Amino acid sequence: MTELLRLENVCKGFSGIPVLKNIDLDVKAGEVHVLLGENGAGKSTMIKIMTGSYSKDEGDMYWEGQKVNIQGPSDAMNLGIATIYQELNLIPELPVYENIFLGREIKKNGKFSLLNKREMIERAATYLKRLGQDFSPEVLVSSLGVGQQQLVEIAKAFTVDTKLIIMDEPTSSLSASESEQLLKTIMELRSQGIAIVYISHRLEELKRIGDRITILRDGNTIDTLNVKETSTDKMVELMVGRKLEDKFPKGEFKLGEEGLRIENLRLKGSEEELNFTAYQGQILGISGLVGAGRTELARSIFGVDPIETGKIHVFGKETLIKSPKDAIRAGLAFITENRKTEGLILDDSIKNNMSIASLKKYKRGPFIHWEKIKQSTEDYTRELQIRPGNIEKHARKLSGGNQQKVVIAKWLATKARVFIFDEPTRGIDVGAKVEVYRLINSLVSDGAVVIIISSELPEILGICDRVLVMSEGKITADLLREEASQELIMKAATGGM
User: How far lies 23's CA from each of 11, 45, 47, 335, in Å?
Assistant: First the structure.
């Protein structure tokens, strides 16, 4: 395979702090080249240099053997480099086809003529079909689920003569079937000579589709290896700089009292009644396919969405929850699946994000006791090992794992007793996942009730003591840890039990 892109001794720093240190990378045409590293290892900075969003401080970049200086995203696009970021870059109020061709619209007869709407719709339909999708290109993006929106983002890359596609966590918001279709599409693109730079923390995906893997740690290139010849344990060891003995640290706890009881709960628009109990000393997992109703259940318990009928009991007391404010007052915490849009104010400080749900306890008369907030925030930052430890730093500038810790700290500050985690480790690296699992164990050890909603079966089986499985809005299985298996959960998730 011929070399397409090469980076030699690339360095980049911000405010005198080095982020990339003599990075080397070569990508060949027709290969899937995996980038692996902990959050904060330098992957995102590296991508932004490759695509012209950042300029490098030192080093050289070569494209098809020629030295290049990519000064902006348009330069990268003209070379044939397309990027699909983890955060969607779509306009919800526009139809799918307009989003796909935004900035690259097809005209009827030259530069200043009318748009060729028909051709754009037809081409958009072809791109979507290539990704296994059959929804109309004329529907508004806002009407699509997150997984379908991600596929629209990927379809945008097909509108140019792309030679290299950079994919940053492309399956993090996709269902199992959508992920499978995307992986098949990647292999098809690879067979056509298109190179893929693929970033993901799902090691099983990397083993399936990767050719070579470059591992970054602390802004350095650690090694480039053949994926098929490298075990996942070795990948993790190189990534974190140490052996990770246990990917799913699991505490042993004594079963305690009832913490949350859901009785005959019927969600809005559903005919099913849901019943279950979560206990102290028992991590309760909720599994199921995308669309099974897991997140809708959590949102209803927390008062975000209304319920038709049913009762909620918190530590034995029937509690009327009609809003998140009621839920917080009752001692509930909800760590949502999308921390960037629902869990954090990205352009505000760590300090303000941690205290926003518990400001009432910091009030002194009509005033806020800012010194107490500062002390509490510093305590949580130190206790949870949030890096960097500057509490005035904006949440946007933190890695995914550290952002998740800030969200958890926000709810710890409310003195919550029931924690509902929705996809708690989505988009964070293996090392950060272990830290989140240990934090969850710590919560349970301190007497909190913990419920985990996850699409990752190894996570459900590795960290939970009991598993509820949902399918089409109803609970189809209630399994203890010792009897649960991937096969049994999948059977229940597809309505087979």
Answer: 7, 11, 12, 36
